[in-house]
Amino acid sequence: MGDFDEFTQDNNDSILKNIADDLRNCLPLETMLFSERLALQKIQQRPEPTVHVDAFLYDEDFIDSLCEEGKMSRNYCMVCGSHQTAPLGFISHSFSLMELKFIYHHVLPDLSGKLLVDVGSRLGTVLYGGYLYSSALQLYGVELNGDFCQLQEMIIKKYQFTDRIKVLHADICTQDALLQNADVVIMNNVFEYFLDEVEQARAWEYISHNVRKQGSLLVTVPSIEESLSGLQVCKPSQHFYCQHFYSTFF
Ligand SMILES: C[S@@+](CC[C@H](N)C(=O)[O-])C[C@H]1O[C@@H](n2cnc3c(N)ncnc32)[C@H](O)[C@@H]1O
């Protein structure tokens, strides 16, 4: 890689880190909103005590410093008052900066002239990463939660990403034309925490029906098999499984 490329890379990382600073200042530490009751309940129902720590906003070093300041803990007390502790489960509703770089630099091909859709764009990290780390012509985020759409609009305006990024405040199940035109569809654990099982099954069937463009790619985390297991969903066609599918392995 030439000096100039390296400089641009570093600069893009810095821009994403500045965006994370801006978002941290607007959001509570747990990065979950009042409007996300179902997601909060589902985290509380997990077998091991679990907290949501957004991987884009808080990397490992940041978490360590918060733990040192006593603002966060990696452990929970198993027997109140005793010294027995166990590690808390952490989940993230965003990709980390490293995961975003991995997707754009190593998972996806050259996106020049392509349309990418992030289903459930939340803080917008996939869109900002796509703007800085790829040549995608258009990056669309579709997000059900209006509060997160406003946050994304704020960042897009501040960092002047408006020429290539658009955010739609909508249920993905109303976006047939967008999905049919998409060259790349990203789905990072979109439905599991946010929809009940009947709605999840319906949404997957809608995706399966509409992600159809010749040569299009679907990137899912976790794998599509894992996402569909336990749901009453008509088996997606071979076309859906084979033509379009990239499953990343974080
Ligand atoms: C795990 S987050 C994904 C975040 C982001 N794509 C990333 O990878 O950093 C899932 C998001 O999907 C949104 N969501 C869930 N169901 C949706 C639907 N049917 N249509 C649009 N957004 C949806 C949720 O509100 C949540 O913000």
UniProtKB/TrEMBL annotation:
SUPFAM superfamilies per record: S-adenosyl-L-methionine-dependent methyltransferases (SSF53335)
A GO term for molecular function: methyltransferase activity
Transmembrane regions: none
InterPro entries: Arsenite_MeTrfase-like (IPR026669), SAM-dependent_MTases_sf (IPR029063)
Taxonomy, superkingdom: Eukaryota
Protein name: Methyltransferase type 11 domain-containing protein
Organism: Molossus molossus (Pallas' mastiff bat)
